[in-house]
Amino acid sequence: MATPHAPADSWAGGNSYEDYVGRWSRLVAPEFLAWLAPPPAGRWLDIGCGTGVLTETALVAAAPTTVVGVDPSEDFLRHAAARVSDPRASFRLGNAQALPVEDGAVDVVVSGLMLNFVPDRTAALREMCRVARHGATVAAYVWDYTGGMQLMRHFWDAAISRDPAAASASEGARFDFCRPGPLRALFAGAGLRDVDVAPIVVPTVFADFDDYWAPFLHASAPAPAYARALGEDDRVALREALRQRLPVRDDGSIPLTARAWAVRGVNGG
Questions:
Q1: Label partner for 101 (CA 20 to 30 A): which of 209, 226, 254, 260?
Q2: The pTM is what?
Q3: CATH number of this structure's domain 14-266
């Protein structure tokens, strides 16, 4: 079986993201903010805001003065603006490596599930530090692709069992920095101090197998793109291999968990 070409790290739009992992990222965001425990009334910047999950949660849980969401996708920004109507929030088109924000303009810089999609993560961290005032919190979280993000891990384990070459397309292989040691080094290397890393684990319970499998047929992340690139026979075989691998309760639901790694630091040495 020929391994499909490694997919581009991009999203076609907000709806496909919500169906695939957006619904689970909503569970991570409040846990992340509780861990940060930021003071109220700050100026926030949400980099790679996507559909507005973290922006919306910050508005509710952190009492910020303002939150600016930045994302390179116009579709995501439309999705976020339609969902988040709070007047404290605004959304801008922009790139994590060249943020449309002035130096030292914000008190809290956050990024949810974005760093692995940035070509130059060092440049992105430098930008995060540039726009943050001295003493500001700079923080992010990423999925634990190597094992803790079970919905993806089961997919790739099933794919690799049929085609070992699929390992090179998996997020675990391509985003190996999404672990405590490399994350800590990335933040410290950008000049952040008091760097801390912590796990966040949330339940990801699927109603049934179709609820688990359907997003792989239309989302645009690496695993769904891999599934869609397969021939019909290979895709059916992969689906059945997954069906045999996943844990299933008596009611047909599939109980999984998702782990993210959260990392934070203080701007200025």
A1: 260
A2: 0.91
A3: 3.40.50.150
